[in-house]
Amino acid sequence: LQYPRCYDTLFSSPIYLHSHNFSTKYTNCQQEEDSLDHATKTAGPSPLMDKENAWKRSYRALEELYHHGTLESIGVSNFGPEDLHQLFEMATVGPHVYQ
To answer: CA-CA to 68 of 20 to 30 Å: which in 15, 81, 93, 95?
Structure first.
């Protein structure tokens, strides 16, 4: 599944630049996207093509896996109030976990 959103400002933030959790430091979303392996790149459309709706496609895929019994629950993180409002408008299954 594609990640929900990528903002270029992340790559210039002090937290990202000084974090030891990222062995490779990228300068923008496109550079990170270009570094993905072939299998990941061909798994679906790039979320950079439609940043505001990429998370909706991912959530739909999670709902489908939930309805088929593959997943026991669905969680979301880093969703603001407007994101949650949009999620509840479109979701057939609300998130079980919010982080």
So the answer is: 81
Tokens 């093509």 found at: 49
3-state secondary structure string across 18-40: HCCCCCCCCCCHHHHHHCCCHHH
Alpha-carbon radius of gyration of the chain:
15
Q: Which two tokens stand for residue 83?
A: 């994101």
Distance CA 26, CA 41 (A): 17
SS3 75: strand
- In tens digits, what is the pLDDT along the chain, a chain of 99 residues? 445 456 777 778 888 788 887 777 888 888 887 888 888 777 766 666 777 777 888 889 899 999 999 999 999 988 888 889 999 999 999 999 988
